[in-house]
Design a protein that fits this description.
Oligomer: single chain
Radius of gyration: 17 Å
Shape: elongated
Number of helices: 2
Number of strands: 3
Number of domains: 1
Helix content: 40-55%
Strand content: 5-15%
Mean pLDDT: 78
Largest sheet: 3 strands, antiparallel
Strand order of the largest sheet: 1-2-3
Length: about 100
């Protein structure tokens, strides 16, 4: 179970593996080339550069989620001694985690 208030990690329910951007495509594994997302069908409304940028952001999502969870977990562990760690941006971080793992309202 995830404790969003404290940023505790939960078992990932997304596709495992290292995600990488390959042009406008996000792949989960170089070996099997499992495509997770391909922006090409959207190119009528997006440029190739924008599609590639979106693919890079999507590919970074699992790493960003893990890093944010670790930061919150460490910050919560020391927050009793450093009250400045509370504030809107910490709540925004918790909301982003909830959104990423499907717990957002």
């Amino acid at each position: 179970m995830t404790d969003i208030k404290h940023g505790t990690k939960q078992k990932a329910s997304h596709t495992p593996g290292t995600w990488e951007a390959n042009g406008s495509t996000v792949i989960a594994s170089k070996e099997s080339f499992r495509a997770l997302f391909d922006c090409k069908p959207l190119r009528m409304t997006l440029s190739a550069d924008e599609c590639a940028a979106n693919a890079r952001l999507i590919a970074a999502a699992p790493d960003l989620l893990g890093a944010l969870q670790a930061i919150l977990q460490d910050a919560d562990a020391i927050s009793y001694a450093t009250p400045h760690l509370s504030g809107d941006y910490w709540e925004e971080a918790r909301a982003a985690i909830a959104k990423a793992i499907g717990l957002a309202a």
